[in-house]
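PROTEIN DATA CARD
Card holder: Alpha-2-HS-glycoprotein
Chain length: 362
Origin: Echinops telfairi
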Amino acid sequence: MKSFILLLCLAQLWGCRSAPPGVIPAFRELNCDDPETEQVAQVAVDYINAHLQRGYKHTLNQIDKVKVWPRRPSGEVFELEIDTLETYCHALDPTPLANCSVRPLTEHAVEGDCDFRVLKQEDGQFVVLFAKCDSSPDSAEDVRKVCPDCPLLAPLNDTKVVHAAEAAVSAINAQSNGAYVQLVEVSRAQFVPLPASTYVEFVVAATDCVAKDVTDPATCNLLAEKQYGFCKASLTEKVGGEDVSVTCTMFKKQPAVPQPQPDGAHPSPPIASVDPAVPALAAAAPADPPAAIIVGEPLVVAAPQVPALNRAHYDLRQAFSGMASVESGSGEAFKKQLVVLGPGPAIPSARPCPGRIRHFKV
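Structure generated from the sequence above:
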């Protein structure tokens, strides 16, 4: 018996000595609802919206997974999977995200699915190392369960949709004493059964022409300092004609579409102003301070001006159109920077992921 106990002790001692000093777990898992996880997730959401030029801003709905890798020579890399939801605020709207309401299920909600790698440096600043997103509308079946009579999203290039947007722009210019505006983007559309009508949301831009004086729109040019407006319109079909109702909010002139600066700092969003010549929906709320500072040169390029084809929304993957050329390279660099000294077990989170749902599940 004594020999067996001695042998057991020697085996345990050998096992301890065989482990190299300084071995650390390959990664640790945080609670998906941990404040640190939520802070990094908000950095990711801010990064998404900073790269959007078309469609609508997105907000965080749920954190699906999180892993935290130690990185040499310092810092940690957060691997995140998050779900987002489309808001009412257009990508060009300077309204702070905190003041943007989520579009409900009854309006055919759109969900985003994103993977991120975010470096947290020792000084608390963040660098987005990798970003990949796509988005899709809720299924027609799910919408019908919630609201059987609610209209579904319509293709953005449908002839009725395009006609409704163009008719609404014509109505704006006919009623305006200010600048002539041009259609930039049809952002969202739905066919309403009763009364038979087409509902559209779209973006316009001011030109150097005065609306009441325009005889040839081809001679009008967009302003050097871009001024965009977001509009909502309904075109109702009637016997012998059609009625168009439209309201718009014009934003303050801006030198360029908001984008991260070369050093990664976010520019202060402009405060929206309302053009008195156009009926206003609402003015933007004052800007709020960023939750975290993002540093580092962006890895992606601006979204190209692509045709809508038969899509009913602008997919988030368009915001990261330049990502395909750097995904593999950034992935290899990511692996080389991690500190993985052994096959030690992951440190489990206090509660399993995914985290809480902030709005609703799509």
